[in-house]
């Protein structure tokens, strides 16, 4: 009798959460592959099959559990892969795109782990008609590379949307012994949506200092920052885009291609610059036409400015499958090193086209 009582109590203890909590698990992803042609760089004409010109190929796992009282726990593990070779998009990194766990309630959402920055999210969701993909990507002029796009060891809080107002704030400690400032990153955004109008302000700041180590002195570089204002507005079948960026300080605007793509004297990444974008996305028949023009104003002594334009078209074959074509061009000045990129690659020259197929699952 006593054994039965203990067994019943243990069963009740471990079975109770399963009775009261609801959980879910979803596997999702994108398989995107395209023909990419590039020209204008020192590498000459380059033609290849590329994974993810429109949207980086990925496979992800996300799940949630209802904890009761309006609170839920959730996680996201997202891996980028190269569909053309079957390899990891980042060597020796399993979940290079996102790896986070969090809590969600009526008071907002709290997440911890590797995450996209508020600055990058604003570029994707509000600023760029290409959604940071294709040969017309905003990356051709705006600094959406490295830790500007994703940051490790990040704590992020997103407020619940109220009357069209939304916002978030992110903090990543530098994790350098003896100095709480060195290497830390802070980001934030504030948005407003009402009907056809979307507005977003975003900030990203990363301290470039490193503490002294054995045989290596400390390096003090200060904080490099990115400020962004983005807006889009829908008029009939056309959505109009506008964005302005301000970059200042060490590593605030890293170049996508750092291998001196044009030969000669290597270009210098700007530490004081401005960017502006004007673009559209128009519904044409079943598809979407995208276009933008951008200008990079380098305010350093190098004066390495650039102007760029891009155009693309996406034609859906179904709700999950689409064909696309895109073209981008850059005019560099005074030895600037900007290259026509896509969602997955920095590019090798000042002209490029994409022709591809994307499937979501």
From TrEMBL:
Primary location group: membrane
The UniProt record lists the keyword Transport: yes
Domain called Porin: residue spans: 7-334
Leader sequence residues: 1-21
InterPro entries (alphabetical): Gram-neg_bact_OMP, Gram_neg_porin_domain, Porin_dom_sf, Porin_Gram-ve, Porin_Neis
Mode of membrane association: Multi-pass membrane protein
Residue stretches spanning the membrane: none
Cellular compartments annotated: Cell outer membrane
Xref: SUPFAM superfamilies: Porins
Record key words, sorted: Cell outer membrane, Ion transport, Membrane, Porin, Signal, Transmembrane, Transmembrane beta strand, Transport
Subunit structure: Homotrimer.
Name this polypeptide is given: Porin
Source organism per UniProt: Duganella levis
